[in-house]
Amino acid sequence: MNMIELGVGVTAAMAGVLAAEFTRTRKRRLPAYGWLGLGILAVAEWLMFRGVEPVATYFTPIAWTAYLLVADAAVLAICGESRLQAAPRRLAGLAFLSIPLWLTFELYNLRLQNWTYVGVPKEWAAALVGYAWSFATIWPAIFETADLVEAFGWFRKARPLALSPRGERLVAGTGAVMLLAPLALPQRMAAYLFALVWLGFALLFDPLNRWRGWPSILGDFREGRRGRLWSLLISGWVCGWLWEFWNYGAAAKWHYIFPMFQQWKVFEMPAPGFLGFPPFAVECFAMYAFAAGMLKWRGEQ
Question: Domain extents for the chain?
Answer without folding.
Answer: 3-294
